[in-house]
Structures are given as C-alpha cells and as structure tokens.
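Why predict the complex rather than its parts? Because the way molecules touch one another can change local conformation, and only a joint prediction can capture that. The input here totals 332 residues.
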Amino acid sequence: MSNLPKPLRSRLAEAFSLQTLELVRKQGAADTTQKFLWRLRDHSLIESVLIPANPALFGEASDRHTLCISTQVGCAYGCRFCASGLDGWKRNLTPDEIIEQVLAVERNVISDKWRVTGKEIMSPVTRHPSRFVDNIVVMGMGEPLANYDHLLKALKILNAPWGGGIGARKITISTSGLAPQIRRLATEPLQFRLAISLHGATDEVRNRIMPVNRKYPLKELVAACEDYQGAKGRMITFEYILIAGVNDSIEQTKPLAALARRLFAKVNLIPYNQVEGLKWDRPDEKVCEAFLRALEKQKVAATLRREKGRDIDAACGQLRLKTEKELGRIPT
Ligand code: SAH
Ligand code: SF4
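Output of the joint prediction:
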C-alpha cells in the first residue's frame, strides 16, 4: 500500500494483522472429516475439524458443513481422558483467532466447485450465496466458558448479518460444566445451543474422570442447566463418552435418563477415542448398543455416534499433542 504515507503504514502494521493462522498440517480427505492444525503468531498450535454432515455421494458436495473450533491453547481443566489438557493451559485465544478458524478453513477448502463471487461464496447445490461452513461446534481444544468474553465477542461477530451470518441456533457451545458461566450464558440474548460434557450421571463417576466436578458438583451443574433450559427452551444436549469399565454399565443409564428427562435434554453417546499414553479404552460395540437401547427404553432421545475421523487423531487435542512431541517441545 505504497500510496499511504509511511508513518501511517507503520502504525497500521503495529495495530493490525492481516493473517493470524498459518496451516501446519492437514489430515483427512476432501469428502470426509478433515483436521487442520494451525500455528498462531506466538507459534502455539491449535486445531479445527471440518465434519461433513452427509458424506459426499457420487461426487456431489455434501450438503452441510460443521466446523469444530478451539478456544484456548491447551486446557486447565485436566479431564483424565482428554489429550487437550495433558500439557496444561497456555493461553486464551483472542476473538480474531477464534473467528479466523472459520475463514481460514473456508479459504482452504474452497475448490473450483465453489465459485467465489466477490465477498460471497456460491453453493453449487443451491446456487445461492452462502457460507461454506454453516454449523459451528465449539468443541475443539480448551474450555470455551473459561474464555467467556472472547468467545462471546467472536460468536456475536460470526452470527451478525454484517459478519459471518451463521444463525445462533447453528452454533453449539460445549462445556465441561462451569455452572456460573452457564447461568451467565442464559442471560445472553442470542439462542446458542448448549452441550454439557456430562460423561457420568453421578458425582462418583464424574469425580473420577473430571476434576471440575469437585468445584461444581452435579447438583450445582444441573441447577445451572435448569436456568439455561428455562431461559432458552429445549437447547441442551448431554455429551456422554462411553469409557470401558468407567461409565458404560447399564446401571448408569438410570441416573442418566433421570437427568435427561428433568432437563428435556438429548443424549449423544460417543465411544471413547483412545489417546496415546492414557489408560482408558472404548467399550465393545455391543456394550455401546446395549447402553443406547437401555436409554431409549427409558424414553430418552439418544444417539450413538459412529464417530467420524477416528483414524486421523480426531479427538480433541490429539494432533497438536503429536506434533508438539515431534517438535520436541514436550517430552514423549
Ligand atoms: N472443554 C469443552 C469443549 C472441548 S472438549 C468440554 O469439555 O466440553 C469437546 C468434547 O470432546 C468433550 O465432550 C470432551 O469430553 C470430548 N473428548 C475429549 N477427549 C475425548 C476422547 N479421547 N474421545 C472422545 N471424546 C473426547
Ligand atoms: Fe478441557 Fe474439555 Fe478436554 Fe476437559 S474435555 S480437558 S474441559 S478440553
């Protein structure tokens, strides 16, 4: 921009940045789950995962694209089964780093099938201008509600008609259970969906795998969820990872079904994704199926995720951990 005065150019360079994310690694095929590893300005690494809702058939583009985004470098909450927290918490992402994940993925995946017309992207299916990413799940690295202000600023921009134009109901925030922030979120005007990483329906099970439960035990978490449910209607999902011998017994479906009914929540069952170096295993498929059937018998809306991206280190934080180890930044 040599037409601008030099002092202004240097002031602009000091105050603004045109790019925040640099692609380090990408895994997966264009028609399946794709995982992106990004390097930030300070050389920290974060991940985003693109998940097509319907796998591409006969060479057609799939019709929905969900992007899973990160909100922190590392995580302070240290759930025992999770790769994101293994190396501790480093810092919060800034609002631009949260938003850039959407834009950078779009820039990366848009091929000649997606025509770029000016600022907008034309869908080859609908022939209407739209975003490529039309669903956001805040389920990547970090605890989103521990970075509340930056998260909300980013999501408001992604939602705004002058910004990302992505409906609030197409945005899901996942939390390990920070009760005060759930209450705060209930007072926001936007109707985000809320996913609670429950993983156990009793304090005994949750205490074993999620240290956050000692701070906000189930009673407090459920009361905060009731606030959210009361303010927003049926917007809550329970995420429940099935871990062999920890939370997968049929007994556990009883307190889980009771909680789900109380909060009108849907239950998403996810077979555990093994993390190198951790002792937890996923249960047999039969055990997962039986758990699902037991919930359904108790009149709970539940799904069992035939989870995508298992072979590309898809669980939260795994690709970053692997790369940090390869770079020798953390011990193997
Ligand atoms: N901190 C937030 C959001 C990021 S974690 C939270 O905990 O909800 C996103 C989801 O991935 C959580 O439900 C988390 O429990 C789950 N998860 C973490 N490690 C996993 C693994 N190895 N296999 C399956 N799910 C995992
Ligand atoms: Fe943090 Fe969520 Fe992983 Fe727990 S599951 S360590 S809260 S990212």
